[in-house]
Amino acid sequence: MTLEKSRYVYGRISIDPDVCNGRPTIRGKRITVHTVLDYLSAGESVGEILRQHPSLEAEDIPACLAFASRLMDQRYTLQKVA
Asked: Which domains, ranges and CATH numbers included, belong to the chain?
């Protein structure tokens, strides 16, 4: 079975098994959605994130939030483990 690249949220968020171990990244760059969400949750401004990562575009930040929101919209089931 081979894994394929997938694109989500206006083509800005991609999942590629060969980039960042398959974690969702921004436009195939080695900047993960998780990294951007971590910055935001720590109180960083969008401007500061863009300054620290000049290859990002302003539209990438809301795409990360939309992607995370879509993940949270899924149903989850907790299972007891041993």
From this structure: 6-72 (1.10.10.10)
